[in-house]
Amino acid sequence: PRFVCAVSEGKPQCWMRGRLALDEYILKVPTDITQAKSIVAGESFACVLNDGTVKCWGSAVDFISKTPKDLPAPLSLIAAGNRACAVDGEKGYVCWGENYKGQNPSW
Questions:
Q1: pLDDT for 4-54, tens place per residue?
Q2: CA distance 40 to 75
Q3: Cβ distance 86 to 93 under 8 Å?
């Protein structure tokens, strides 16, 4: 991967090529995330569970626009390539992002 991310004291941090990716166009971390519980990273995006919601950012604009806004109770996230899935307490799981081969089972 081009970058790695972690959560520290509720805030996400991402590193790119050995330095914090504070102003990199590919991963400018939003400053309004203060209660992150977990973080995942895909090819050119990252997502966090923040205060009971999913928030994604990065350079994958189409992917980010498809991030579900109405997940009832997201419990965990997983990401690979340009897609991600959230496991929640009601629907089981919801996936979004690239689906050119039908790999997102919730579609």
A1: 889 999 999 887 765 555 555 556 788 889 999 999 988 888 899 988 888
A2: 13
A3: yes
Whole-number Cα distances in Å, 11 to 3, 57, 83, 88, 107: 16, 14, 22, 22, 31
Residue type, 47: C
Alpha-carbon 33 to chain mean position: 12
Contacts of 4 (CB under 8 A, 6+ apart): 14, 15, 41
14 vs 107: CA distance, rounded Å: 30
SS (H, E, C) 26-73: CCCCCCCCCCEEEEEECCCEEEEEECCEEEEEECCHHHHHCCCCCCCC
The Cα 51–Cα 6 span in angstroms is 16
Neighbours of 92 (CB within 10 A): 10
